[in-house]
Amino acid sequence: MGRLRALVAAAGRGSRAGLPYPKTLFPIQGKPILIRIVELLTCYDNCPTIVVSPEGEAPIRECLEKAGLAFHLVLQPKPQGMGDAVLRFQESPAFKSTDHGLLIWGDIPFLQPATIGAAVKAHFEHDNDFTFVTSVVDSAYTVVTRDISGGVIEVVETREHGIAVPQAGERDIGLFVFRNDVTLNALQEELPGKYGRITSEHGFLYIIGSLAKRGLRVEALPIATELDLVSMNTLKDVEAHL
Known about the structure:
Blueprint: E1 4-9, E2 27-28, E3 31-32, H1 33-41, E4 49-52, H2 54-66, E5 72-75, H3 82-87, E6 100-105, H4 113-125, E7 130-137, E8 142-146, E9 152-157, E10 169-179, H5 180-188, H6 206-213, E11 218-221
Parallel strand pairs: 1-4, 1-6, 4-5, 7-11
Antiparallel strand pairs: 2-3, 6-10, 7-10, 8-9
């Protein structure tokens, strides 16, 4: 089956939410989002790797230590996109012992244990190279495209494709399980869509289409619950759950 290690992308600075600290440290019902995520991950990896910004390193370290949790921190020196953040995993002490990665965006406070469990189970039982969780929503800011048999073709970010008003569709939720070497090798290649048209940042979702085109086993699981879909870009996104 191979060793599974967890990675949390938590380099978001919180400025869009009007916070003077990383948004992953925002407390939801008295507990920081990051602590909620790390606690969920303990049954898969009791010492996950957290990608942080230079400004966020000290407060995130303090928060995790105060909670008594084990972790590895790696720096993303500049905000150069999620693909760049995931590549920072190579700097973690956990990297060399990793066969499969469990990646979670650091601004998702209500991921359900059953959703993570189902994704991990499907990944290994189906011998997938890349597995991710999705949901069909009224306003999809990322869009999963499938072929007539239901196989994944690609995932696109609407803002990078000039789509001003997102439409109904299937979107990812920020939860991924992948074969480590396959994914990180793809991130290092100069592939179409690597850099955003609007942001010029190194993205992440573009590799899904590339892996699918190569005939690798890519599976999108439309199993997300309403709570799984909650993510914090602004305070308004989570105010109903405070």
